[in-house]
Fold each of these.
Amino acid sequence: MQPRSAISLFTLTFMLSVTALVGASANAATPEESMTKAGCVACHAKEKKLVGPSYKDIAARYKGHANAVATLTDKVRKGGKGSFGPIPMSPNPPDKISDAELKAAVEYILAQ
Ligand code: HEC
């Protein structure tokens, strides 16, 4: 029985640390983490164009625009096309990314 209890102790410790890690990132997710969680990374990358423009291209386009954060937060929430071409971005509802996370994500993108 000795090896078996050693394994379950290991499993328990492992599960507790995973829970702790997940809990910590839910409290203070970095913009990159929330964008991964929300699925932005399926269409966007930092340096290169995928389905959507790269973060660098977005940052370059909105450099110096005073309302960029508000405008882009709204656009990402509702989706839309026309700024970079005919391919539309699908809407990104609050169950995917909260208002605070979305604002942090847009600020992060604009800082690239
Ligand atoms: C299904 C693919 C897809 C997903 C998922 C997606 N995007 Fe986009 N995104 C696009 C496309 C395509 C465009 C270009 C739209 C245009 O030309 O107006 C875009 C444009 C943008 C822009 C610039 C908008 C503008 O008007 O200039 C920002 C900022 C952005 N995305 C952020 C995000 C964030 C943050 C997420 C995740 C919450 C996200 N995107 C998820 C495809 C996507």
Note: Residues 56 and 112 are 5 Å apart (CA to CA).
Amino acid sequence: MKHFLFALTVLIFLSLACTNSSEEKKIYSVYGIGPYQKISLSQINDSIMQTGKKLFDKNCSSCHTMEYKNSGPDLSNILERRTPERIMNYMMNLDEMKLKDSISVNLDKKYNSNCKIIIKNENEAFSILEYFRIYQIWLHEFNIK
Ligand code: HEC
């Protein structure tokens, strides 16, 4: 009886641990991993967006184009497949995302190159997010794709 109770306790504990981690994974895939879990976005600010465009051209465009696939994935419609929180976490917490977040792990396997985020602070990351947002609007308005 003692053994049975012990085994039962272990079983319950294990099944609880499993549910937790699959719940966690679901949250990871939507918001990614990192401090950004709920961002409220207001109207796009033109000068912040221009800063983001400059940073993107300088630090990201060698691998990511906004028009076709390069050594990194195309990011022109990134906001159709990823939440803003996820993108902020990706830019600000890349190492942990690439270790623990299943989408990022699989993406990493798919590409020969590695994402290299050169961003000094949260404001710079946010300005790139704003650039992604305006690009999304341009895509739909001008039917670039
Ligand atoms: C040296 C090439 C390189 C540079 C520079 C680079 N990236 Fe990446 N990026 C990649 C690759 C390759 C991937 C796919 C994952 C991997 O293998 O690392 C990726 C993935 C991403 C993703 C995830 C896309 C998705 O579908 O979830 C985002 C967002 C991203 N990069 C943003 C940026 C930003 C913003 C910059 C500039 C600050 C940047 N990257 C600079 C190569 C690069």
Note: The mean pLDDT is 84.
